[in-house]
Write a structure and sequence with these properties.
Isopropylmalate Dehydrogenase; 337 residues; alpha/beta; 13 helices; 2 domains
Length: 337
């Protein structure tokens, strides 16, 4: 697989992006196209030449003279900066020169570039950002996680189809359990949107388990949580805040109790596991599902580990023909636009 990687996207670009590309190339047979200012990327690669023998890795630089910053207006940036690293990545996929693209940059611009150059899959009403969220034993996917704050029931049905297929093909979860985020487990609980979406998803042959309350999300009751982007983004950001708070409270507790602090060396492995569990760097990126090409969008603060994970996930989605699977299933449950 050939993966186009936006070398200038995110708060830690280009250093962590280039390092992540090296990690991905070392651990796989995929070709990485590092997209951005040629000289800047070459200088970053040179820093790792001796340690990783860069010449032996399947990494190629694709020059792009412009950069889309995290604060720029998405649509305007895509229109005006056609030679930006992010836009060039989307073009490479659209032209068949790459099988997928990954960016840690401006989420809105990544969506705009994908919609403009890759287009929507035929029959898809709205693409969805599907973000991985840690649970007690594993993880779940929240779809949508912020791309569409106002939705119709038909949108949520399609989110369920696409996120379920990603879960199955890329994350290797057999028959993923799908739940609709609601205020109660009963079929009659929810607002107009969730109740109508419940009815639509229930009629499919997806592994639908009904409504999911907020408290059941971290418990791992479902593999796929379906909601509009307003609710999904609140769930995601609230979860990130709780995870950060818990780690700080644990640290504060140790400092306040000298005996507990003395036992830290014996608990270190468990604490490292906890930190790893809630670290977004472990999950790589969130797929933009519904566009006619593979696009993964990572956290703006992503480090090399997250970049590597996102590249490998994007490659797996391409290898396992996720796009055609979505096309076939969306056609099966055809909805008039």
């Amino acid at each position: 697989m050939i993966i186009a990687l936006d070398a200038m996207g995110g708060d830690n670009a280009p250093a962590e992006i280039v390092k992540g590309a090296i990690f991905a190339a070392k651990s796989s047979k995929h070709k990485i196209l590092l997209v951005g200012p040629e000289r800047t990327i070459a200088e970053e690669l040179l820093k790792h030449h001796k340690k990783y023998n860069i010449a032996s890795l399947d990494i190629e630089i694709v020059n792009a003279t412009e950069v889309v910053s995290m604060s720029e207006h998405p649509a305007q940036a895509v229109r005006q900066k056609k030679d930006s690293s992010l836009v060039v990545c989307a073009k490479l996929v659209a032209e068949g020169k790459a099988d997928a693209f990954v960016t840690m940059g401006n989420t809105g611009a990544a969506m705009a570039a994908s919609l403009f150059y890759l287009k929507r899959i035929d029959g898809v009403l709205r693409p969805a950002i599907s973000t991985l969220f840690p649970t007690i034993d594993n993880f779940c996917i929240i779809a949508d996680a912020g791309a569409n704050v106002d939705c119709k029931p038909e949108n949520l049905l399609q989110f369920a189809i696409m996120a379920s297929l990603y879960c199955e093909k890329v994350l290797s979860v057999k028959k993923p359990r799908i739940g609709v985020a609601s205020i109660g487990e009963e079929d009659t609980k929810g607002n107009e949107l969730s109740l109508a979406a419940f009815g639509l998803i229930k009629k499919t042959d997806l592994n639908f388990i009904g409504n999911i309350e907020g408290k059941d999300v971290p418990k791992g009751k479902a593999d796929v949580i379906i909601c509009d982007g307003f609710v999904g983004n609140l769930l995601l950001k609230f979860g990130e805040g709780i995870a950060e708070m818990m780690l700080k409270l644990i640290k504060k507790g140790f400092k306040n109790h000298p005996i507990a602090w003395a036992s830290l060396p014996f608990l270190w492995a468990a604490l490292k596991d906890l930190r790893k569990k809630v670290d977004y760097n472990e999950f790589g990126g969130a797929p933009l599902l519904g566009v006619n090409g593979i696009c993964l969008i990572g956290h703006g603060r992503s480090e090399a580990k997250a970049v590597k994970s996102a590249v490998l996930a994007a490659a797996k989605a391409a290898e396992r023909d996720l796009i055609n699977a979505i096309k076939e299933t969306i056609a099966k449950y055809k909805i008039d636009d």
